[in-house]
Amino acid sequence: MKAWVVRSQGKPIRERIVLENYPDPLPLENDLLLKVNVCALCRTDLHIVEGDIPAHKLPIIPGHQIVGRVVRVGEKVRNFHIGDRVGVPWLNSVDENCSFCLKGQENLCPNARFTGYDVDGGFAEYTLAKENFAYLLPEGLDDIQIAPLLCGGVIGYRSFRFTGVSCGEKLGLYGFGSSAHIILQLALKKGIRVFVRSRGQEHLELAKKLGATWAGDYSAPLPEPLQAAIIFAPAGEIVPLALQDVDKGGKVILAGIHMSPIPSFPYYLIYEERLLQSVANSTRADVREFLKEASACNLSPEVTTFAFEELPLAMEELKSGQINGTAVILIAS
Ligand SMILES: [Zn+2]
Ligand SMILES: [Zn+2]
Question: Which ligand ends up closest to the CA of 100?
Fold first, then answer.
């Protein structure tokens, strides 16, 4: 099959991720073999190519927001059939028996494996998924509308739940890419007012078009204090600013898998019971719950599509902040 393969991490992107003829994957007893329709691009894919997060496996095919059709099933698979359309997210498998898994925190499992990081992912014609970590998708929703929900959406959703904001309250979104623009839509449906900070003028315009109460850059004074903020941008210098923007008892949630160092800040910024918390990965329950919410709330991600051959271009544009919404790579079409 044709696949985008990373053999060594680093820069530039085009030299590190290369289109190759790669051996077809073979399903084990609990696996689904999928023909990939589309795979949405996540900032984590970029971190894996450039080495911001160290590789777990090389060579690796990145991509962990996969929509595909089942073309073969392992002999123990019971709940999926050939022809089913399924979604595959970041979490590939867990051990099911560590102290974290037993407490419902499988996202923290020390033996968790991740799609496109520990096992080959979706920037390829075919990929494998574990039956218990794949999701049957409702017919009717477009592949390209679902793919961005599978990581950006789910991680955003987990972050959003941690904020605890409810109807009538104010939420800040810092960095306005794939995840943030989906959570903006969800928050608005719940009657929450949303304030967006971003460096990109086009991102700010999209935020306003989608219904943000306020959108400005990181130096603009915020008109009112917030109950909570989610930081999506991988920039540690935003953390003290966000703590300054939230009211007493406010929460600042860090949604990214990687962030540049956080500068030291005076204690008063976090005093008065402000809370700083990161989000790591997601659970199967997060995915199920969010896919239900997304369809009930009619979330519709803004999408820029790229041909399979254009993956490095999509990564470059994501890196330079040129993508509005989510980049989705068309693979079968
Ligand atoms: Zn575990
Ligand atoms: Zn991701």
Answer: 1
pLDDT by residue (tens digit) across 39-78?
999 999 999 999 999 999 999 999 999 999 999 999 999 9
Ligand 1 geometric centre to CA of 258 (Å): 22
Q: What is the pLDDT of residue 284?
A: 98
Sketch the domain layout of the chain as residue ranges: 2-137+302-330, 153-278
CA distance 157 to 332: 28
Q: How far, in Å, is the centroid of ligand 2 from the Cα of 45?
A: 7
CATH classification code of 2-137+302-330? 3.90.180.10
Fold match, 2-137+302-330 / 153-278: no
Q: Which ligand is nearest to the CA of 281?
A: 2
CA of 28 from ligand 2 middle (Å) equals 25
Ligand 2 geometric centre to CA of 190 (Å): 24
User: Which pair of tokens denotes residue 112?
Assistant: 């968790």
In whole numbers, what is the pLDDT of the chain averaged over residues?
Answer: 97
Taking the CA of 256 as reference, the closest ligand is 2
CATH of domain 153-278: 3.40.50.720
Give CB contacts under 8 A, 24+ apart, made by 80-84: 80/32, 80/131, 80/134, 80/136, 84/136
- Express each pLDDT in 186-238 by its tens digit: 999 999 999 999 999 999 999 999 999 999 999 999 999 999 999 999 999 99
Closest ligand relative to 96 C-alpha: 1
